[in-house]
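Example record

The entry below shows one chain as it appears in the dataset: sequence first, then structure tokens.
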Amino acid sequence: MSLNSPTLPALEGAVRLADWGVIRAMGEDTRKFLHGQLTQDVEHLEAGHARLAGYCSPKGRLLATFVMWQRGKDEVLLACSADVLPAVLKRLQMFVMRAKCKLSDASAELPLWGLAGTTTLHAMADAAPALPWGRIGTEVADAVRLPDAVAAGTAVPRLLWAGATLPASPALPELPPDTWRWLEVMSGVPRVTQATAEQFVPQMVNLELVGGVNFQKGCYPGQEIVARSQYRGTLKRRGQVLQSSVALVPGQEVFNDADPEQPAGMVVLAGSLPGGEHAALVELKLSALAAGALHADSAAGPVLTQAALPYAIPAEAA
């Protein structure tokens, strides 16, 4: 089955996101502190909305990406890959200094679930926000609507649920974890993992195209490099969706047989459907799309073919 096929397996259900975690930031200086650390505007974060954000090194390379939302008056939650959480939490704590902001790992208290499919979200009724980046919170859980995954001309709605349990009724079908990751790929929204930490400037994985970078806010680590990448010169690398005959993994290198000695890109996220359909969001030299074939691992590896992103890459970046 191809990503361009008019039919797809049922993409409905819920899955416990064991590879995600949550950082809690609390205190009267929380917004101000995070605003000075992340690529996104935190000071104007509204209770009914979530936002995507990046956390960069001084060299402008992404250490993590977050889905963030306000939970209480002085409380912000940051959902990210579980394997980068300890290092990122430690690094953020180093810069708190005198700010009144306490950071902690809230993953055990607020496990994350991924919900997908029109029927599934309809079953959540008023607990599911209607639009991407909407947020609905209760005393025991938060629901954040994520951008849809798009494949074969079909939009698959997605929801991030933070809470100890899902609503007891109705019972939701179980979604395989790798299917959720496939949906992440098809949404075109990057998520940095340990295998790719410090590999990408935000634009290399389209973070600003999906709303993860605010170019009007003040300084943050790596801001000058991120801004320079945006406003000076042509961007030569972008995130692309590629499909494969074999499963791929984050951090895996991609080659072009027209230039076999040098990697042409790196896998950011990868996922598979139960029927054996494999796809990946790949950071890729745009020149590698012009000539030659793409392969995983080496110029003699499995062939990779381009599939559609759910959004356009600006012509000036191409």
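Notes for this example: The domain at 230-317 is CATH 2.40.30.110 (Elongation Factor Tu (Ef-tu); domain 3). The first helix runs from residue 30 to 35.
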